What we know:
The complex is a heterodimer. Helices cover 34% and strands 28% of the residues of chain A. Chain A is of the alpha+beta class.
Amino acid sequence: MWPNKFEYARAGSVDEALAMISDDGKFLAGGHSLLPVMKLRLDAPAHLVDINRIESLSGISANGDLTIGATTTHAEIAGSAAVQSMCAALASACGQVGDQAVRNFGTIGGNIAHADPASDPPTVLVACGATVNIQGAAGARSVGAEDFFVDLFETALDDGELITSVSLPNCSDCQCAYVKFPHPASRYAIVGVAVCLKMDGDTCTQADVAVGGATVKAVKCAGAEAALAGSALDDAALEAAAAAVKADIADWLAGDIAYPESYRQQMAGVFLKRAVRAAS
Amino acid sequence: MQVSITVNGVERQADVDPRTLLVHFLRETLDLTGTKIGCDTSQCGACTVHLDGKVLKSCTLLAVQADGCEVGTIEGLAAGGEHHPMQSAFWENHGLQCGYCTPGMIMASAAFVRDNPGASEAEIRHYLEGNICRCTGYHNIVKAVKQVADAAAAP
Lengths: 280, 155
């Protein structure tokens, strides 16, 4: 399959990329979300600005917080000792994207700009309170992951804006996990649940929960969080959280003929319990 | 647009339409038809090649993105006319039936064993999730990869 015709240019810096882009163009990083979309003619940008060789956009730094450059690949994140120690759930989620060949070239920035609801990293970013750092012609801004994902394949990015990095608070004193129910053929998440728990002995002092796959975007789940916080994560608390999460995602449900909304909603409760058990 | 890509150790230059996928560049511009097009949607792995040593589905990268890079295809795997150990293992274990997925399977497996000598059967099966075979049921493919993985880990 050939995409529509387009002009191609490679940018050497963020400033150069921002100067090159116009309203009918797209930034190209690893291309592992954008090119399939273009090959299926779901999109046909008139020009692509390749940002994949801009050095400042790549790499992982762990100075207090964790900052991951936009063109860092899923394989680099999954294999990073810093990410494994500071946000194990993100390393796990990035290690479950596609297959090894896809993870070698697909990037975290491209992944979240695409905002596929069944993809794994967005769910963890929302649960763990990540910040998306964005650069545009008008300057830089940062958006919380929860606000960044607006709807199905829709983000808070404006035309011409570029994701430069994603930041996460140091989660090494939390217990976090990402657990998904993969589609048997595509391995995309039918349901994916990320949890980040702060514990004081056996008591959970704070819980952050997000659900993807079952929903049109990664959704933060305040009801489930309230059910877990203050509990000993016993069976009763887990049942209450499983019931609450179904209400948390009720307005955002996604479904198809094989896995309808009601089924995914039910499974979100099941996988929430598994995620809490995996984390604690 | 002018590109210069080193394929199997030889620098190849061509003027390509920017929308040319790497797999089309290999098959149609360079006539290296060992790399196959299967699903064309980054799922089946028939088009797997190496880009700067990493496995890549060549239907999901533009040739212009590979400008200045090194690409390895199935045609370049047999150094000096000798089969790569993975090719020999597929031969010895009959790790194929129709053969369509075989170039991608071998390229993916060769990179995997290079990075993971001594890999277990479970690790091999998990790794090969990105390469689909509709004939064999995978049994002999896994056997072939395991043989090379075991040999690579032997003292």
